Amino acid sequence: MAWAILIFLYSVAGGIFLLELGPYIYFTYPEWQIYGGIGIGVGVVAAINVLALSNVSNLSEEALADPSNVLIRPGLYPLAIVFMDSRLKSEILWECANGQQLWPPSEEAGYGGTTSMPSILCTAGFPTIYVVFIIALLVDLAFQLYMFFMTWRYEKLLQHYQSMQPTIGGYYKA
Hints:
By secondary structure, this protein is mostly helical. It has helices spanning about 1-20, 30-55, 60-65, 65-85, 90-95, 105-110, 120-125, 125-160, and strands spanning about 165, 170-174. The longest helix has about 35 residues, at about 125-160. Keywords: Membrane, Transmembrane, Transmembrane helix.
């Protein structure tokens, strides 16, 4: 359960970051909202996973053990984000070179609101941020795969729970 809570925390934090500061990284209108929404959605699935792991219901485990929930999303989502970041390198560099202001076409369209671009994106440099971003997405993929394994293992335990027999000391043998 602690693993699912960790995934919940960093997914929701990343989703909120993208929803708030996404216009400085992605310059097409719904793009940052889509990625932020996916991050929040992953957090919701992780929260449901916490509830499912604390319950003995086989139904919730079967729903969460579906490979599409955990294997397809973390595999395709990072590829799209990395591709978009590499495509938008010149716009991000322009924002850093011009006092961290929003890219002019985005500003004309009314994106950005009252926030300003985080200075860490400019001081670290685009290549460093890009590499850290790729590493973070790979770590997320590993975390998601491990969470899928733990959910699958718990589901199998619940399926075979009826056939287990208690032994002395409280352990079960199949």
